Amino acid sequence: MSDFSPHVDTSDTPGWCRTVTAALHRQWERYGQTGLQLAIGLMTIAALWRLGHELPRLVWEQGGPGAVDLRARHAEVQHWFAGQPVYGAVEDRDYPPASYTMLWPSLGWLDVAPARGLGAASTLVALGWLSYLCVRESRAQTRTEYGFIGLLAFAVTFSSLGLLQQRRTSAAA
């Protein structure tokens, strides 16, 4: 079992704090693997639910909140590079001009449907890369610890929020 806590000089720490810390370490040594396995199970369920709920909505949902932000950015990029007015042309979704240049590689040459797939794929690649970096930089020593750290990026709320932000700001697009 690895020790996730950094080495810290505790000579000036109050006695009660050292006592609590020692008790927590004992509990970790006793129940840590079981706790990690339970957490991995819960995080797997959370990741499957979040990604299973948001990815199809981003890629396939038509109208309404389906890919609203992505559709708005697509329209803005198309307007900008066609020399058409952007500001005020797409309802209250005006990004700075530099944004259109950055979005051009993914939105400028694709229709909305393939851009939605590209957005979903690039989000999954980014989450996978983040997961890889977290595992690589962690001090994990067991497969259970690797699994726990590797699932963090997929299970936490921000991963589904990133997909959600690509697909909706409002239902008025």
Would you kindly provide a written description of the structure presented here, covering whatever features stand out?
It is a single chain. This protein has 173 residues and is mainly α. It has one domain (33-167). The chain contains six helices and no strands. Helix 1 (15-59) packs parallel to helix 6 (157-167), helix 2 (68-81) packs across helix 3 (97-108) and helix 4 (112-137) runs antiparallel to helix 5.
The percent range for helix content is: 55-70%
The arrangement of helices and strands along the chain is HHHHHH
Largest sheet: none
Number of domains: 1
Mean pLDDT: 79
Rough outline: elongated
Low-confidence stretches: 168-173
Put simply, the count of helices is 6
Proportion of beta-strand residues: under 5%
Structural class: mainly alpha
End-to-end Cα distance: 52 Å
Report the radius of gyration as a whole number of Å. Answer: 22 Å
Number of strands: 0
Question: Topology, please?
Answer:
Layout: H1 15-59, H2 68-81, H3 97-108, H4 112-137, H5 143-155, H6 157-167
Helix pairs in contact: 1-5, 1-6, 2-3, 4-5, 4-6
Briefly characterize the structure:
The protein is mostly helical and about 170 residues long. The protein contains six helices and no strands.
Supply database-style keywords:
disordered C terminus, 6 helices, elongated, 173 residues, mainly alpha
